[in-house]
Amino acid sequence: MNPKINVLGEPMQDCSKDPLTGWFRDGCCNTDSNDGGLHVVCCILTDAFLEFAKSKGNDLITPAPQFNFPGLKAGDRWCVCARTWLEAAETGVGCPVNLEATHEEALSVISLEVLELYAE
């Protein structure tokens, strides 16, 4: 199996094991053809971003135990949808990004230059 590559062209690092994130819930922002939302941007969440996502119908704050989802808070790391992150950045509430843990597929939606502006 080929290693997953980040936006810097290097092997991917984990985004978060606690809370456990990722499309595959493996702690990494990996993706596949079933990931319609492209959950590939490893973010360090802020209250402003969480409120933005909630206003767009993606409530990441409220726990959903039936899905083993703890609910998120500012400071947590989470693999977010590339388009949601870009839209947040365009409205002034983009949160910091861990480039080493952001999948190269994010570059299909967001330029590296924009991501670098938010690099932690």
Task: Describe the SSE topology.
Blueprint: E1 39-44, H1 47-55, E2 77-81, H2 82-90, H3 112-117
Antiparallel strand pairs: 1-2
Summarize the structure.
The chain is of the alpha+beta class. It has helices at residues 47-55, 82-90, 112-117, and strands spanning 39-44, 77-81.
Write a structural description.
With 120 residues, the chain is α+β, with helices and mostly antiparallel strands. Helices cover 20% and strands 9% of the residues. The protein has three helices and two strands; from the N terminus they run βαβαα. The chain has helices at residues 47-55, 82-90, 112-117; strands at 39-44, 77-81. The longest helix is centred in the middle third of the chain and has 9 residues, at 47-55. The protein starts with 38 loop residues before the first strand and ends with a helix. The mean pLDDT is 95.
CATH homologous superfamily assignment: Protein of unknown function DUF2237
User: In the CATH classification, which architecture applies?
Assistant: 2-Layer Sandwich
| Poorly predicted regions | none
Widest beta sheet: strand line-up: 1-2
Quote the distance from N terminus to C terminus. 29 Å
